[in-house]
Amino acid sequence: MGVALYPADGMSVDDLLRAATTALHRAKAAGRGRYQFYLPEMGEAARGRLEGMNALRRAVRAGELTVFFQPVVSAVDGRVVAVEALARWSDPILGDVPPDTFIPLAEMGGFVHDIDLSVRQQALDWLARWRRAGLDIRLHLNASEQSVRRPGFAERLLVEARARDIPPDRLVIEVTESVFVGVDDGAPDSLAAIGGAGFGLAIDDYGTGYASLNYVRRLPFTMIKLAREFATGASRSERDREIVRSTIALGRHLGMVVVVEGVEDQAERSLLGMLDADLLQGFLIARPMPGDEVEAWCRAYGGLTTEERG
Ligand code: C2E
Ligand code: MG
Ligand code: MG
Is ligand 1 within 6 A of the CB of residue 283? Predict the structure, then answer.
């Protein structure tokens, strides 16, 4: 709910509605079941956002979003096990806009599903190509709450995978903890359908949102991706180190694979707590890269060097 007050936020019905809508977008961005009063500083920000949103909507319609891939490797034997598809948008005026900026815009505008769909189709085409070339890796796809909540999400994904000869267990759907908010209206059902169809299901950015152990317990998650804040923090704080260590243990006891994300340097990598993780992802291993570089990278990657292993 967005709230605007007369006369402070506007003298006409039009102005009040505009202010209330601006506040509403802010409330929605903060999660489900929120309300927000209009604040004057939202006006300027809202105009900028609207321009960005229109440019983005146009780019999505024109099929201009591209996809990069970041490898996920085994911490145990150095194999490349997967790549994560990441959306990329380059606007002629705004330049390269990071997904942390444009995904929330698309969520506010209600068209993030179109982005997820476009990324998914490009990424599935790439995966099919790599498979034909003999590269058997998994593909991780990020899915926004709005995408996952659409009825038939898992069924459509099955059709798309089948059309390309991709078995469901080669795909992992990553959802953030925001899908747990307002759980009584459908998210867990659609998550259960994803698991039931045989896809992998990962909690992304674990530890930064609302995931309660209750969902970890009830839902068919196959993977926990520990938020990169913890990889960073672990080299500095004993508490963070302990969180990494115990999350890995928790995942393992529940039969889930644990990915430590955002591993940037060797200090982080070589921390004992992380040596025990199953999978690693981060700039130390590779930055996201265009699809036409993935195959060569995977073939060339020989695991972490002894030095990098710490
Ligand atoms: P994410 O799914 O957690 O993806 C990992 C992000 O961390 C990526 O940022 C990646 O480039 C970045 N990263 C990887 N390793 C490191 C590292 O060592 N250090 C640092 N500092 N960062 C690292 P990116 O590509 O900017 O994406 C940001 C977020 O945007 C993603 O976080 C994901 O939540 C969202 N996103 C990206 N593509 C899509 C998409 O197609 N659909 C949806 N719904 N969300 C997407
Ligand atoms: Mg992700
Ligand atoms: Mg993540």
Answer: yes
Q: Which CATH architecture fits 64-309?
A: Alpha-Beta Barrel (3.20)
* HEC-encoded secondary structure of the chain: CEECCCCCCCCCHHHHHHHHHHHHHHHHHCCCCCCEECCCCHHHHHHHHHHHHHHHHHHHHCCCCEEEEEEEEECCCCCEEEEEEEEEEEECCCEEECHHHHHHHHHHHCCHHHHHHHHHHHHHHHHHHHHHCCCCCEEEEECCHHHHHCCCHHHHHHHHHHHCCCCHHHEEEEEEHHHHCCHHHCHHHHHHHHHHCCCEEEEEEECCCCCCHHHHHHCCCCEEEECHHHHHHHCCCHHHHHHHHHHHHHHHHCCCEEEECCCCCHHHHCCHHHHCCCEECCCCCCCCEEHHHHHHHHHHCCCCCHHHHC
d(CA 254, ligand 2 centre) in Å:
21
Q: pTM for this structure?
A: 0.87
Q: What is the pLDDT of residues 115-138, one digit of tens each?
A: 999 999 999 999 999 999 999 999
- Domain ranges within the chain, ordered by starting residue: 2-57, 64-309
Q: Who surrounds ion ligand 3 at CB < 5 A?
A: 204-205, 261
Closest ligand to 259 CA? 3
Q: Which atom of ligand 1 is nearest to the CA of 281?
A: 15
